[in-house]
Predict the 3D structure of the following.
Amino acid sequence: MTLNEGNPEKKHRKHAKLTRPSTGNYSRNEWAIVGGPCVVIKLLADDVIGALGAEYKCAYIDTSHNDDVTLLPGRLATGAILDYTDQLNYQQFNFQNPLMPYQLKQQFANTDLLLVNGNHQLAKAQVVIIDINKRASLLKRLDQLTNVELFLLADNSDDLFDFIKEAIPNWQQIPVYKLGDKEKIIAFFDAQLKQAKPVLNALVLAGGKSERMGFDKGGINWHGKPQRYYMADMLKPFCKDVYISYAAGQVEDVNAPYPSLTDTFTGLGPYGAILSAFREQPDSAWLVIACDLPLMDEGTLRNLVAWRNSSSVATAYYSPVTDFPEPLIAIWEPKSYPILLSFLAQGNSCPRKVLINTDITLLNAPQPEALTNVNTPEELETVKRIIHQKLAANEQS
């Protein structure tokens, strides 16, 4: 008998309990188009991607219809496992070995809309074409119709098949369009993507050691309360939930008005705090802000949220001081989570470098001085004077 046998409370947990992102087989927002000829599915995908590609990152998955044995392309024919070619206006990868599911998710993690030829591949949601000529084929795929969100009637059909009505209990609540009504179909996908926009939470970074300052910067009373709470209060109108990030082991105020989020990626500074937030809620976007920004104002936050681009990895302000994006007053989208982990795996824990080397939306701050951070007692005194001058000017006006 082992030590834990007979005592379920002491059974060993083999895996850490993690919150998994709500991805499908490939991406967060994926639809398999099934029930029509492959050429019709391809043309429909072209129409949708052509209409939405300027606003969203779109992708398509299909399977080759070549029944003959296809010769290996490029250097794969001579034994390479991977062949990459820079085609100038696009990039081409050829793989020798089949891609594993986790690798496919990595490839499509940055997409906003993924369409799949459902005659060959599966996706977590389905668009079903009702075509008399493909009736038998669709009947064979009934078990694939797990989450139908749209029916499309081909020219030769005017109603759903009886077996579809029997297999899908809520079929009457699912919209039905004509296959040729491209505007309605495109509007459907556009509405779905807008509805799927990730919820925005806020994370106030208050877990720094404040070594240059000599005392806790988050506790400085610039505006009538500790700075970490002042910043959290300012963020509340723009975000669903506001959290304050603390380092592991850091003493927290048990009477704090905001929930805390402890850093579980220790020793990485702000980088670890951002990863810890995504580890807790991987489907949320995070407005990450350092607590040592005493000149931050509501207008700067409102502008950041208003110009947020959820199709980008992040939305950030350009810093005229560093001449680079400012990572600690930025909105990090869920698609940045695997990218942050990838950078970390390559030995890089600088959030600014992630912004520099990825697809982001970069904004100019309406009031650049709002990005001023305070790290030393000298900087503290300088900012104190600025705040007092502003207060005096407001009183006079």
The radius of gyration is 26 Å. Residues 1-6, 210-215 have pLDDT under 50 and may be disordered. The CA atoms of residues 140 and 156 lie 20 Å apart. The domain at 200-391 is CATH 3.90.550.10 (Spore Coat Polysaccharide Biosynthesis Protein SpsA; Chain A).
